[in-house]
Amino acid sequence: MSSLEPWYEEAFRSDYRRVYAHRDVASARTEVAFLAQRGLAGRVLDLCCGFGRHTLALRELGVDAVGLDLSMDLLREARQLEHASQLEGRLLRGDAAALPFRRGVFDGVVNLFSSFGYFGELGDARMLSEIARVLRPGGVAILDLMNPAHVRANLRSESSREGQDFLVREARTLADGGRRILKDVELRFADGGIRRWREDVRLYSETEISSLLSGRGLRVETVHGSFAGEPFGPQSPRMLITARS
């Protein structure tokens, strides 16, 4: 791994799906049902779509969804999904901080499963600016973020998990006064292969993210604590922001 390569390029390789098999289309369908209740419809961008599980679930509901991700490995994995034909011509590779779309072309943008906080504060701000740019007036943006208070209160410093042909070990620490979570990952395969990387994700409070969105013309409408629609609070596992342009 090159020292110049961002951590998220090393983390999201083709083995992601089997190591994190629980992040599947079935769970995506449940989450997408909640998004539809929040008014998500029309032409929608699934930003940082991975292997397209939420894009597929949206299309199954009749939403005109397209997905974008930086990882070509994960985009190729979409071919293995059941009903993958629904994603044909709907997934593309691109940079979340420099979207290859015209201004105001989407009715909605979703950014799911903690796929935010990767680029440093300036890069994260550019990503939000791009979301605002591609939304039409009145369009909706939904961000699924980690809840910093919950992360700090429930941090597991170490964990390990064994699969059929791999062992993954994870060590977690907080940095920058608890505003960043660092995770050192070691992935060992039965064939002797080893991959290691350090994840570094900025945690944004509700106040911080609301201010960043407001500064880009996106008004926060609701904040939920889970995909069950629970109110947001310190113990909420998620921070689901719905904002409108």
Q: Key features?
A:
245 residues, alpha/beta, Rossmann fold, 2 domains, 7-stranded mixed beta sheet, 4-stranded antiparallel beta sheet, 8 helices, globular
Fraction of helical residues: 25-40%
The CATH fourth-level homologous superfamily of the largest domain:
Vaccinia Virus protein VP39
Number of strands: 11
Which structural class do you get from the secondary structure elements? alpha/beta
Mean pLDDT: 95
> With helices defined by DSSP (H or I, 4 residues minimum), what is the helix count?
8
CATH architecture of the largest domain: 3-Layer(aba) Sandwich
**Proportion of beta-strand residues:** 25-35%
CATH level 3 topology of the largest domain: Rossmann fold
Rg (CA only): 18 Å
> What spatial order of strands do you see in the largest sheet?
3-2-1-4-5-11-10
Indicate the overall shape. globular
Question: Quick one: CATH class of the largest domain?
Answer: Alpha Beta
H/E element order: HHHEHEHEEHEHEEEEHEE
The parts where pLDDT drops under 50 for at least 5 residues are none
Summarize the main sheet.
Answer: 7 strands, mixed
Report how far apart the termini are.
40 Å
Indicate how many domains the architecture comprises: 2
